[in-house]
Amino acid sequence: MKLLIAVLVFGLIWLWLVHPRMSVSRRRRCRKLAEWNYAHRGLWNRREGVPENSMAAFRRAADAGYGIELDVHMTADGYLVVFHDDSLQRMCGVEGRIEERTLEELQDLRLAGTGQGIPLLTSVLEMVGGRVPLLIELKMPERDISLCPAVQNVLSDYQGDYMIQSFNPFGVRWLRRRCPGLLVGQLSSRYTKEDANSAFLRFLSTTLLMNTISRPDFVSYECSNTDVIGFQLNWRLFRIPVFVWVVRTEAEFRKYSRLYDGIIFEQILPPAQGTGGQEA
Fold first, then answer.
1. Distance (Å, whole) CA 63 – CA 43
2. Active-site residue numbers?
3. What is the architecture of the domain spanning 24-72+130-265?
4. What residue spans define the domains of the chain?
5. Separation of alpha carbons 162 and 155, rounded Å
6. Cα–Cα dist 204/214, whole Å
7. Residue 97: is it exposed, middle or buried by C-beta count within 10 angstroms (0-12/13-18/19+)?
8. Mapping DSSP to helix (H, G, I), strand (E, B) and coil, where does residue 127 land?
9. Tens of each residue's pLDDT in the chain, 280 residues
10. Among positive and negative, which fits the CA dihedral 34, 35, 41, 42?
């Protein structure tokens, strides 16, 4: 009997730790925006000279009627730029990080050997102009969340639909508390040693125990790892809106769009607006 009680108490504590924000109205808003399919880092195609997270990729996505997933870093002098990697090496062929460079230094760099530069977030917002919704990932090294108020300031006058997500639960919590109308999401995956040296951090991310800090409106999870218990509890028990990434084949799109609410894709051309979330 004592063992049964102990198991029950442990289970209740676990459920409390992983549960998301429970607002019904906010879930409806999330699911409405999840009807769009989101082009991962824009509708890019290297063979056609359109690199990821470039103005050309974002323009193509908006013109085609896709939602846009993009990534935001802060420069050393406080500007917000759209770029994914922690290092500049893969996309620009130079050492260093966005956070170590000024905007002037970054403006001399080009993406993947093309004529495209690293865009300012403000330039992307102006070009999109509310035509399609945005799913904005905030890149915050370690526990530094200074990016959050800067993004809040830039987006305060933007009239289009957008949601913000991050792997950093402290940043998600800051936005949830300071921006009551904003939809915020917890990004996560089944971490490996290559993703994070800390076994404890890998455990928190994989299980979505980070929800106890962030209490997100939605979860954005790597599509190939959705069998983990934290994700399953959020999806099946708490019925939280779920986005999955990155869907790269037509077969994957058919599978995941039947199961989950939102699809983040690349390398394929799905319908401009999806109808996911039908088979929970």
1. 10
2. 40, 84
3. Alpha-Beta Barrel (3.20)
4. 24-72+130-265
5. 9
6. 12
7. middle
8. helix
9. 777 787 788 778 888 989 999 999 999 999 999 999 999 999 999 999 999 999 999 999 999 999 999 999 999 999 999 999 999 999 999 999 999 999 999 999 999 999 999 999 999 999 999 999 999 999 997 778 999 999 999 999 999 999 999 999 999 999 999 999 999 999 998 876 666 557 777 788 888 999 999 999 999 999 999 998 889 999 999 999 999 999 999 999 999 999 999 999 999 999 987 644 444 3
10. negative
List the structure tokens of 64. Answer: 């085609």
Single pTM value for the model: 0.93
- C-beta atoms surrounding 212 within 10 Å: 14
- C-alpha Rg value of the chain to the nearest Å: 19
Under a CB-based contact definition with an 8 Å cutoff, are residues 83 and 117 in contact?
no
Q: Which residues pair with residue 219 across a beta bridge?
A: 186, 242
83 Cβ contact list (under 8 Å, min separation 6): 53, 71, 72, 73, 91, 98, 118, 139
Write out the two tokens for 184: 């915020």
> Residue 88: what residue type?
L
Name the token pair of 168.
């950093």
